[in-house]
Amino acid sequence: SNVANSTIAILPSSLPQLHRAYIMEHLTPEQQQVIQSKNLTPLSTKKSKTRWHFGIRSRSYPLDVMGEIYRALQNLGAEWSKPSEEELWTIRVRWKYSPAKPTVDADLDDFHKPEEEEEEPVSNTPDMMKMQIQLFQLEPNNYLVDFKFGGWEFSNPEENKAGVEGEDDEMSSFSAYPFLHMATRLIMELAVNS
Amino acid sequence: LATTSIKHNTLAVASIVRYKQKYSTQILYAPL
Amino acid sequence: EQQAALESMRQFIKSKTSYDVLPVSYRLIVLDTSLLVKKSLNILLQNNVVSAPLWNSTKSKFAGLLTSTDFINVIQYYFQFPTKMDLVESLTLDGLRDIERAIGVAPMETASIHPFKSLYDACLKMISSKARRIPLVDKDLKTQREIVVSVLTQYRILKFVSLNCKEITRLNIPLKELNIGTYEGLSTVSMSTPVMDVIHLLTSRNVSSVPILSETQDGSQGTLINVYEGIDVLALIKGGIYNDLSLSVGEALLKRPEDFEGVFTCTLNDKLSTILEIIKKNRVHRLFVVDDQGFLKGVVTLSDILQYILLG
What we know:
- The complex is a heterotrimer.
- By secondary structure, chain A is of the alpha+beta class.
- Chain A contains six helices and seven strands.
- By secondary structure, chain B is mostly beta strands.
- In chain B, 0% of the residues lie in helices and 69% in strands.
- Chain B has no helices and three strands.
- Chain B has strands spanning 2-3, 10-19, 22-31.
- By secondary structure, chain C is of the alpha/beta class.
- Chain C has helices at 2-15, 18-21, 37-46, 68-80, 85-90, 96-103, 119-129, 154-164, 175-178, 195-204, 232-238, 249-252, 272-281, 302-311; strands spanning 25-32, 52-56, 61-66, 133-139, 146-153, 189-190, 209-213, 224-229, 264-266, 286-290, 296-301.
- In chain C, strands 1-2-3 form a three-stranded mixed beta sheet.
- Strand 3 (22-31) of chain B pairs parallel with strand 1 of chain C, so a sheet runs across the interface.
- Chain C: GO terms for molecular function: ADP binding; AMP binding; AMP-activated protein kinase activity; ATP binding; identical protein binding; protein kinase binding; protein serine/threonine kinase activator activity.
- Chain C: It is found in: Cytoplasm; Nucleus.
């Protein structure tokens, strides 16, 4: 350790190379053979770099892509507004998102309540997730389908009139996971169909 | 939305979300 | 001097929130509970993380944290029910709770805390729940759903304190006078101990590491030569060699990645000022206390250090 007057150190025999030498030194040649056969090589830490890209890419014809998306949305029970002339390549989707109602945790901090805990449903949470799907052309024959979270609203139009409290603050504490989950459902539907 | 190519029947999607004054890249791994 | 420094550090920790510890931008990996356990292991290793929050997409809510304890439970299950090998292969993260019940271990109660509560409260929660990490959970304004903002570990908190509190240079009372750490009743093994016995010790003693001592001719206590850690289990499962009953812990450690930084040791003359200095620059999980001949005297964990700083 390069810290003054300290006796903190790294145990040399715990370093992988020295540990391997220690083990091999205490084994008979037959045992060393066994070691080789047991696939006891160090775990490779080279991380195949995860390559991220926006949306999903497609080389199909634009109209085919749009058809695939509408079909997938239909299979997943989503609804969409009729596209306007100027926005033929944009789909404004609404999804009924009604998994088990979230609970109002009396104490938010019990992150992982045992399952059997009774969950009283929370009233008036919006149950329609909005998403905007748009086709972009990157270059000839190379398209990108972009997914954008569009906020929440109530399936019962009456409740939508109440306006949204904390509009500006809305985006600063929203859970992306329902959106990410619906995007995976749609991508899987497209992958499986294609 | 950011995505990765599907490998071993597993899909990863991500989005960058502002939480107050900080930015969290939330990554969800799900089975195909 | 030390008391005054501690008091000042406590004020600092009380004045900060867990949110303050978060970097300006960071990533959070979350696993859908319908993933296979084996697939989730690859995802953790590929992202160089040892734990991740779980998302139950059918209930649209978070389902606790996946940690090395879960993988240890899977191995224990396999050894209690060897005929269930195919179940282990097809086990999903949803099934981990059943595994806990099958081998009779209590579910990991994951305490969590709101990001804007004081860092002091987060540390107290971790100390009382004996967890080494704590999810920061807020609520989605519109849908009332939980948001896991991030997961704070003891290491990250101690690193944050070491980087921001200049008072650490005044913590100069040697360990031997501080009485922090564990010096009695430590479980130890030797290189030839079956790795399964070591994994049982991790669970039965509820510890995250087991020191390995050298073997001596006359049976006297040997010196510290290595340590088996809970996260080493991930390499065991990844290598698919957890079903080898005869594997010794020395052989199992051959699976450790080449870039493993090594086991940190110290002596009873060391002080928290130098220990926290080391934590600033190295991913230290614990320090094994040895004497000048290398014989094991005890262990100081991050929990011990955090508890001392917070509570004395």
